[in-house]
Amino acid sequence: MKTELNRYLKALDKKELEKEVKMLYAKFKEVKKYYELEFSQDTTAVLNEFKAKIKKEYFPKRGFGRASNQASRRVVGDFKKISIFKKDVIELLLYRVEIMIAYTKAYGDIDEPFYNSLESSFEEACKLIEEEKLKEEYSSRCREIIDETYPFGWGLYDGLKYSFDNHLGD
Fold first, then answer.
1. pLDDT score recorded for residue 127
2. Domain range spanning residue 51?
């Protein structure tokens, strides 16, 4: 497929390429969001839109949240596809973790898959923080997250502390 795409794109002249990109922009929401992030220095609005989707999964305006790990992971995955800056991905991952912790505080101890998903998001955030050399900026926030989980079950506190120490520890 990629070879065919390359061949197709090489056969187009500049006007045809412009028309192709405009068509993709008009047709696919993800392409539109990607370019919105690409051309904007302030990604806050798009990031907040994705944060709202995560929050809605756990704390909808009415009723109880579904707290679907799969749905909130999908929101993060969709954001990764359009994100320009790794820092925004870190923000969304940590936000997801914080919302999941708030959900646990609101509704009590959840199950092991829930906490495994929370841990994997925290681990991914810690890896990205390490890769992007943003330890100074995020260390205290990560420590606060870890401290909030001390009373939780399923070894969550230990798992988060291990991820932090492994990637961001002194």
1. 98
2. 47-168
